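Here's what a typical entry looks like (Dephospho-CoA kinase):
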Amino acid sequence: MSQYVVGLTGGIASGKSEVTRRFEALGIVVADADLAARAVVTVGSPALSLIAERFGADMLLADGSLDRARLRAHIFADPAERTALEAITHPAIRRLMQQQCEQAASPYALAAIPLLTEVGGRQAYPWLDRVLLVDAPEAVQHARLMQRDGIDAALADQMIAAQATRAQRLALADDVVVNDGHPDDLQAQVERLHARYLGLAVG
Ligand code: ADP
C-alpha cells in the first residue's frame, strides 16, 4: 500500500509517456488519468447514469455505452456544458486514481495527470505529496507533436495554445525532468528522482 504519491504532469508531447515507462520499469505503479477517465464512464457506472440524466439518453449508444463522439460534439462549443460534464466526471476520476494509488504495491505511486494545471492543480488533488513536471521547450514539443500525430504546424500550434503555459506548469512543480535532448538522457534523471522518492516515501 502506497502512502506516498507523486503527481506526474507535462504539456502535450513533452515526453510524459517516455518518463512514465521508465518509472514503471523500476516497479512503480502508475495510475493514469486518461485511463481513469474512460473507466469511470463504463456501462453501469454512476457517472454514466448522471451523464444520461443531465445530457439525455441519446448520449448513449444502443448497447448502453457512452457515445463519446456525440458528447464531445455537444460540449465542444459550449463551456457551460463542458463544465457540467466535468462536474460529473472529475470527482469520479480523482476518487478512482486516489484509490489506485493507495492500493499500489510499490513503495510510492505515480499519478499521471497530464492536465493537472488545467484541472485545478494541487487544490483539486490535495493527496499528491509532490508534483513532477516533464518539461520541454515549446519548439521541441511542437516538433514532436507534429511527428508523433502526423499533424500540420497550425494544428500543433492550436493544441499547445489550448493548454496551460510552460510557466504555469513550472509554478506547480517540485521536481522537473528536462526532456530536451536524447531519450537516453531521461534514464539518469528518472533514477535520481526514484532514489529521492524512495527516501521520501519511507519518511
Ligand atoms: P506525452 O506523453 O507527454 O504526450 P510522449 O512521451 O508521447 O509525450 O512523447 C512525444 C513524442 O516525442 C513521442 O513520439 C516520443 O517518442 C518522442 N520523444 C519523447 N522524448 C523524446 C526525446 N528526448 N527525443 C526524441 N523524441 C522524443
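The beta strands are 5-10, 29-32, 109-112, 130-135, 175-178.

More examples are in the samples folder.
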